[in-house]
């Protein structure tokens, strides 16, 4: 019986890390630039996963002590350069995009990160307007 209890405790400890995993994931960004003729798919890394969060039913200052809200955020970001083809001479074809290097479950700092997803639209396509006709490039 004690061996079974030890196995259950060990399994729960291992599952905690699997359920609350915050890790790097590959992600495809579709970038385009106004006045450029093409759309480019860029592969980068983002932080993705679940972090432990706890809410309370208590109100006021006392209740705020029991609230734990963490997000899967990057600890370090590097900005890389992408070149958009088909740009006129007077348009800079370079765009910068982020690539996460390390992730962690921590409080989201609104000064440095977008803590709330604001858009419900899908970002998995580009729209390029050529001669007044809108072209959708699907993955």
Automatic annotation (TrEMBL):
The keyword Glycoprotein applies. It is found in: Secreted. GO terms for biological process: G protein-coupled receptor signaling pathway; regulation of hormone levels. Its main location: secreted. GO terms for cellular component: cytoplasm; extracellular space. Residues 1-20 form the signal peptide. PANTHER family: GLYCOPROTEIN HORMONE BETA CHAIN, THYROTROPIN SUBUNIT BETA-LIKE. This is Gonadotropin subunit beta-2. It comes from Cyclopterus lumpus (Lumpsucker).
């Amino acid at each position: 019986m004690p061996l079974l209890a030890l196995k259950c405790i060990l399994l729960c400890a291992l599952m905690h890390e699997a359920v609350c995993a915050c890790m790097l994931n590959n992600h495809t960004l579709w970038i385009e630039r106004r006045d450029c003729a093409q759309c480019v798919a860029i592969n980068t890394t983002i932080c993705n996963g679940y972090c432990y969060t706890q809410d309370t039913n208590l109100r006021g200052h006392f209740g705020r002590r029991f609230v734990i809200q963490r997000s899967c955020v990057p600890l370090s970001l590097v900005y890389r350069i992408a070149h958009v083809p088909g740009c006129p001479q007077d348009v800079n074809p370079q765009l910068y995009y982020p690539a996460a290097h390390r992730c962690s479950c921590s409080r989201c700092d609104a000064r440095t990160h977008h803590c709330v997803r604001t858009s419900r639209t899908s970002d998995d396509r580009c729209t390029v307007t050529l001669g007044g006709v809108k072209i959708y490039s699907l993955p």
